[in-house]
Specification:
The structure is a single chain. The protein is of the alpha+beta class. The chain has helices spanning 7-10, 14-20, 26-47, 54-84, 95-98, 126-138, and strands at 88-91, 104-108, 111-118, 141-148, 155-163, 166-171. A hairpin with a 2-residue loop joins strand 2 and strand 3 (111-118). Helix 2 packs across helix 4 (54-84). The longest helix is centred in the middle third of the chain and has 31 residues, at 54-84. The protein is globular and about 50 Å long. One of its GO terms (molecular function) is nucleic acid binding.
Length: 177
């Protein structure tokens, strides 16, 4: 789904709210912030002179509000998992997140990792892969795509490789070991 408003006009960042306020319960997040989100969405629609149906409003709420909450939780879980495996890792905010799609940064043994978290079966956009790959390699980091798996160890890791404008994922069998 395409979000009908510019996210900067929406001025609502679920990830910032969830992680900076340590909210790990969706019902609490919903009860404390949904009204604010709904008002900001209405305001952004008014500013951009756009109208949407109730069905579209619910779809936007699911993408921005609901998925924003769960993505933030998964990113924090990934950072925690890496930290337990002798990495120094943290969830990324701001420009590196919005523009370059870096969700988690990690370091171990003088090696840097830029990690993008994706749901299983997600289709990766070429422009996203390109900017993610180019920034990681420019900064000397290994570009990694992590995916939540349904069975232990619950995370699967893939190195993003690129050559001559083509990009592919290669499973990393022993990561984070």
């Amino acid at each position: 789904m395409t979000i009908p408003v510019k996210l900067k006009n929406l001025d609502f960042n679920a990830k910032n709210i969830v992680l900076k306020n340590h909210i790990y319960d969706y019902d609490r997040f919903y009860n404390q912030y949904f009204e604010e989100f709904a008002n900001k969405l209405k305001n952004a629609l008014r500013v951009e002179n756009k109208k949407i149906t109730l069905k579209e409003f619910i779809e936007v709420a699911k993408v921005v509000f609901y998925n924003g909450f769960w993505n933030a939780i998964k990113e924090q879980q990934l950072a925690n998992y890496l930290n337990k495996n002798n990495f120094k890792s943290w969830v990324v905010f701001g420009e590196l997140d919005y523009i370059f799609k870096i969700d988690v940064m990690a370091q171990r043994n003088n090696k840097n990792y830029f990690i993008q978290l994706k749901s299983s079966g997600t289709i990766l956009k070429l422009e996203t892969l390109k900017s993610f790959y180019n920034l990681a390699t420019k900064k000397g980091a290994l570009p990694v795509v992590a995916s939540w798996a349904k069975k232990a160890p619950y995370w699967e890791f893939y190195e993003l490789k690129g050559f001559a404008g083509h990009y592919w994922l290669q499973k990393i069998e022993k990561f984070p070991n």
